[in-house]
Specification:
This protein is α+β, with helices and mostly antiparallel strands and 205 residues long. It has two helices and eleven strands; from the N terminus they run αβββββββββββα. The longest helix has 25 residues.
Length: 205
């Protein structure tokens, strides 16, 4: 009977599992007061990996920050080419994406103000959404995805040259339980209750 109780506890734990929220915050790679040079590199942010074809992680204390570069008080990533930055989970677990921050990089920005996000779905197929910046340089905006952006294997961001990114908010999707498991758990509960009733009846006799 103890085994039944253990199984019930496991079932409850599984059924109550929730998505794990995370933010790809661009922190941890830029040297103090400086920038990195990224050429086809992949950096790890917790459970997520971000590929950059060509760009720079910039520390919030860089001398140019606040003068000619964005200043949101944290590190950020600038992209210096039209090559997409590519986000995926490290373990290959499907994930959802909620939002990201972006802005034109500098005062003399004259590039495109559209950012196209393309999501690749775990079940096959793609989803895309276009975002438009306000053409106010160095002023991060937050852009939100629709609720359809779930069950993803990767997300590509295609934007204009010299766009800065920060704070990509994502969720690892929990593995769905088979539909029969809740019924199985209910059956175990009834079986356990019946066993308790039989023991009580036996003692009373």
């Amino acid at each position: 009977m103890k085994l039944l109780h253990v199984l019930l506890v496991v079932l409850v734990a599984l059924s109550s599992s929730a998505a794990t929220a995370a933010t790809v915050d661009m922190e941890g790679y830029a040297p103090q007061g400086g920038t990195t040079v990224e050429n086809g590199t992949t950096r790890i942010f917790g459970d997520f990996a971000l590929y950059v074809g060509h760009g720079h992680y910039t520390d919030s204390a860089d001398a140019s920050v606040g003068n000619t570069r964005p200043d949101n008080g944290t590190d950020w990533l600038s992209v210096d080419s039209y090559d997409a930055i590519r986000l995926r989970s490290v373990a290959g677990t499907p994930f959802s994406i909620a939002s990201f921050d972006a802005t034109e990089l500098s005062l003399n920005y004259s590039g495109r103000n559209d950012i196209t996000a393309t999501g690749f779905l775990a079940g096959g197929g793609q989803i895309s959404q276009i975002f438009y910046t306000d053409l106010v340089p160095r002023d991060f905006e937050t852009f939100y995805f629709s609720d359809l952006w779930t069950g993803l294997t990767s997300v590509y961001f295609h934007g204009g040259n010299r766009i800065a990114f920060d704070n990509i908010v994502v969720d690892l999707n929990p593995v769905p339980l088979p539909a029969a498991l809740p019924m199985f758990g209910a059956g175990l509960g009834l079986f356990s209750l019946f066993g308790w009733w039989r023991r009580r009846r036996f003692v009373a006799a």
